[in-house]
Sequence to fold (255 residues):
Amino acid sequence: MDCPSEEALIRMKLGEIPEIIKIDINIRDRKATIFHKDKTSEIEKSLNELQLGSSLVSSEIIGEDISGERENKKQKKILGTVLFINFGFFVIEMTTGLISHSMGLVADSLDMLADSFVYAISLFAVGKVITTKKNVARVAGYFQIILALIGLTEVLRRFIFSEAIPNFQYMIGISILAFIANGICFYILQRSKSNEAHMKASMIFTSNDIIINLGVIVSGILVYLLKSAVPDLLIGIIVFAIVIRGALRILKLAK
Fold:
């Protein structure tokens, strides 16, 4: 076990065994501590199938509570917080995007809405078996792809038909606020240090949002300098390309 990818592989493999309650992995020391109720032989068999050269160092009975209930409550609190922030900014960006005729803000608001759905689904997944968590990541990925295709269709329509030049003040101001909000969300999610598929999916969505916010800010500046709606439409294309890329990464996690 030499890298985080191998750690993720181990967690996914052992996550298929319901008797396992908690897994602590120390990459530096090349050790994994597995808390479980029974079936030691099945755990060893699963690890051997990964062909990582694993071996049992020791096994002992402990009396402390490792039910994982505390971790589940922590995840629910984190996901509830980022859900509230994302849905709030969906409303704000959609409203200001329509008022200012900005495709960038509308696209970002739809991305925020997608994130809100993902976080809501992830809340349902907390404490569920590994299969459910993989399914959550898969649903989230496909949802993002569908949303991106709808957005690209709208961008194409705006390229074909004349549209008013967006209000760059709205684009820049709201995007700066969204950037700060997404930065807070990403910090909260990263602090959870969770390696579960649904939590990783949430972090991928949020990192995408931060990039998108910066893009909308830049496009707002270009709209002002060029007196043209083209930069706003171009950022729309870029936004949905980023969304699709993130969705493909999430679908990879769900395998």
The chain has two domains: 1-67, 69-253. The first strand starts at residue 20 and ends at 26. The domain at 1-67 is CATH 3.30.70.100 (Alpha-Beta Plaits). The helical segments are 4-14, 40-49, 69-100, 103-125, 130-160, 168-191, 197-226, 230-253.
